Amino acid sequence: MLIQENVPLAPFTTLGVGGPARYFARARGVSDILDALEFSDLRHVPIFVLGGGSNLVIADRGFPGLVIKIEIRGVTSQADGEFCVFEAGSGEDWDTFVAHTVDQNCAGLECLSGIPGTVGGTPVQNVGAYGQDVSQTIRSVVAIEIRTGEIRVFSNPECGFAYRSSIFNDGSRDRYILTSVSYRLHTGGAPSISYRDLQLHFAGRDNPTLVDTRNAVREIRLSKAMLIVPGDDDARSAGSFFKNPVVDCKAAEFIAHIADQRGLPLPTYAAADGMVKLPAAWLVEQSGFGKGFCAGAVGISRRHSLAIVNRGGATAEEIIALKNRIQQAVFDQFGIELKPEPVFVGFER
Ligand SMILES: Cc1cc2nc3c(=O)[nH]c(=O)nc-3n(C[C@H](O)[C@H](O)[C@H](O)COP(=O)(O)OP(=O)(O)OC[C@H]3O[C@@H](n4cnc5c(N)ncnc54)[C@H](O)[C@@H]3O)c2cc1C
Hints:
By secondary structure, the protein is of the alpha+beta class. The chain has 8 helices and 20 strands. The strands form 6 sheets. Strands 6, 7, 8, 11, 12 and 13 form a 6-stranded antiparallel beta sheet that branches. Strands 1-2-5-3 form a 4-stranded mixed beta sheet, with helices on one face.
């Protein structure tokens, strides 16, 4: 396996910021990963696992260890009664894989069309959009334990899925490298049209198909710059930069009271255990950071108030400065600490 040195990482990310990797390797199979782990052990350097780079902010000074870019390919499928189980290599492009499952007339991932990144990135933060998330369909995840090199298979409950979270970005963060993921999809199943944007899109139309739903999701995402299109600087982002905060009823009532005073409706959503999910986009906008906000080479997308964008030539430092400003403003106005969604790489001292 080829190990390169001082490889710029910004081009491997959708945000396009960050410095080089001290060492860089492409893993096309399990044996490449084991070789890479041996290399990092011998050199005593940390590793970072890179998928499609769509949920990352990489520090300007780069990463001081070995970046392993996952390029494990291959998709197989097997019928299981009225379901079909697809097993995909973790380096498969996510949207191409979703298109394949929709072509096979299998329901369960159609609302996750157009999300950038790899298959292996989806269990990590339990990717979700338009009423679906992968915790609803993942059957199992195969991973290599970094410390021992052993292969482990995780069932769905063992992945510990929650909103934008799993054991892979929480309790067992940086412990495993995912090599493949299995999804159990409903053959001939109806598309999920539970989300308001999709209901509006299909208003007055009967029985949209899985293909219709995939196309609609991509169209809606394009209108919000949440579909990556070359040359669209509103899409040079890491997607939504902040998670929707989940608060108790008392905090939600307090914010709703402020919203009432301002004469602005506050959409809220029920979350687990009687908690309430608030729209981070609303909080960001109401704190003075509207769509199209600009601060030098960084800003907020003109089409999505949760996306911090690189308008061209931005540094990670500028991205972090804007993130901090937004978090501080939301805290000052509403007493809520917004949690970032992307992963920060190379910032540790
Ligand atoms: C325009 C845009 C729109 C987006 N829309 C959405 C959305 O609607 N919903 C949503 O949930 N997310 C969204 N995202 C965020 C992002 O696309 C997802 O989180 C995606 O799944 C990240 O996958 P990736 O392969 O790019 O991972 P990366 O960004 O490369 O890595 C993210 C994290 O996953 C880890 N990782 C990646 N692959 C592996 C592996 N094989 N083994 C172990 N760890 C791994 C990395 O180490 C890192 O910690 C969006 C991003 C952009 C830029």
